[in-house]
Amino acid sequence: MKLFVVFATLLACALAGPMVRVDPNLDWRIVGGSNAASGQFPFMVSQRSGSTTSHMCGGTIINNRWILSAAHCLTGSGAITFVAGSHLILTGGVRFAVSRRLIHANYNPTLISNDVGVVQLASAISFGNLIQPIALESGNVGAVAATVVGWGRIQTGGAIPNNLQWLNLNSITVADCQNRHSHPVFANNICSLAPNGQGICQGDSGGPLLRRGTNIQLGIASWVIPCARGWPDVFARVSSFLPWINNAITS
Fold it and tell me: For the chain, what is the radius of gyration of the CA atoms?
């Protein structure tokens, strides 16, 4: 689990511990979202610490060998695997080993800029009802109806839910997002905004911001003000990094 959490004058990276507590009975939400049904988001994967059930970050399936995630999820030296095909952390799904990780050359952990990376799996994914690739947005999207998906904490320092969560909200323009944040927001970011008590949290990193009602990914979860406090959540804008992503997965 990693998610950058920005305070007004202090930048801190919320790093994953060796184990993340998963509450199988947790009925709270992403923060403020709803339980996903089996197969509702078949492109979602859970990044795990090695062979454990310890959830670290989310990610999305680009094709049968590649996963899209945030750079800050992939910078550690520890072994990671990805589980696809289950909306639950503790049961189900297919686990995939990692062949290599590629992080954007201009990723800056201080500015939290260019926070995008891809992972090549050691074996190919077989697609079915529960496992499907996502579509990547190619246009410069502004304020639209959107959805976030992830297994992030229900509050800062809280538990990771066993059941995948989703939340409807809206994206906002970069200019609006910049006006609301003291930390830099760049043109290659896209932001979402929800009422106080709703939003992404630690553990949602690497997961998608979707155009609502579609499987089209607009953003990659990157950083937040302390979770669900009414400030915009910030994502790497997929369309801005599409040339890099396409080049990386064909290299």
Answer: 16
